[in-house]
Specification:
Layout (H helix, E strand, L loop, with lengths): L2 H26 L15 H14 L4 E4 L5 H12 L11 E5 L2 H14 L5 E5 L2 H14 L8 E6 L6 H11 E9 L9 H12 L4 E6 L5 E6 L2
Parallel strand pairs: 1-2, 1-4, 2-3, 4-5
Antiparallel strand pairs: 5-7, 6-7
Length: 224
């Protein structure tokens, strides 16, 4: 890893550590944090898992649904600098969607402080509408392999999760991965997540498994 990459990783990790302190305090329940100010972030071990997975995949194009303040997005960005094959960092490698302007503003600040704003594009808007738009763009040129994503992370509202998955499936490449957060926790989500898992596991061109890390991650591989 070059000195440039080491400096980039160090800068990202500094912001991640600051956000981790906030997230730990939030999860402890020892302080009153409004829903507007809460991170609702993935856990630290989930972030490390993503970084390892993405580095091993040499993923170059990633879509995230549910930015919040950018904690998971930063772990995704970290994977690019871990990977020696990172000559592709001249464009927006990560697209992330959120409809909360306050959290989008916080995320933009975190990306700037981490030095990764050049490789991340935030789309502010309704996730379902944005995904439909992105999916339609892929359908217009289905033979253009550059349009397809290597990795898609779903971490937004659970009510539309089945639709998110189906749209994501149309945009992820063969051999690409869709990851869904909160499959196991919080427990109040379990009825919804059970129906969701039943939906995706009926698809004969998807291989899917639950990984009991963090709040539970469903790893779904598009096999054709």
């Amino acid at each position: 890893m070059s000195d440039v990459d080491l400096n980039a990783c160090s800068r990202i990790m500094k912001v991640l550590n600051e956000l981790e302190k906030q997230s730990t305090l939030e999860r402890s329940g020892l302080t009153d944090i409004s829903h507007e100010d809460s991170m609702l972030a993935i856990t630290n071990d989930t972030g490390k898992f993503f970084s390892i997975l993405l580095s091993s995949m040499n993923a170059k194009k990633i879509l995230e649904v549910g930015t919040s303040v950018g904690y998971s997005t930063l772990w995704i960005a970290y994977s690019f600098y871990q990977n020696k094959e990172n000559s592709h960092l001249s464009k927006k490698n990560v697209t992330t969607i959120d409809n909360n302007p306050i959290k989008v503003k916080k995320a933009l600040t975190n990306f700037k402080n981490a030095g990764v704003n050049d490789i991340i594009e935030i789309i502010e808007g309704n996730s379902l509408e944005v995904l439909k738009h992105l999916s339609n763009k892929v359908k217009e040129n289905p033979d253009d392999r550059n349009q397809y994503y290597d990795f898609i992370f779903l971490d937004a509202d659970k009510e539309n999760l089945t639709e998110y998955f189906d749209l994501a499936l149309s945009m992820v490449k063969k051999g690409g991965i869709i990851v869904t957060d909160n499959v196991l926790y919080p427990e109040e989500y379990r009825p919804t997540m059970s129906k969701y898992l039943e939906h995706i596991r009926k698809k004969d061109f998807v291989q899917s498994v639950t990984v009991p890390i963090g709040y539970g991650e469903e790893i779904s591989l598009k096999i054709r």
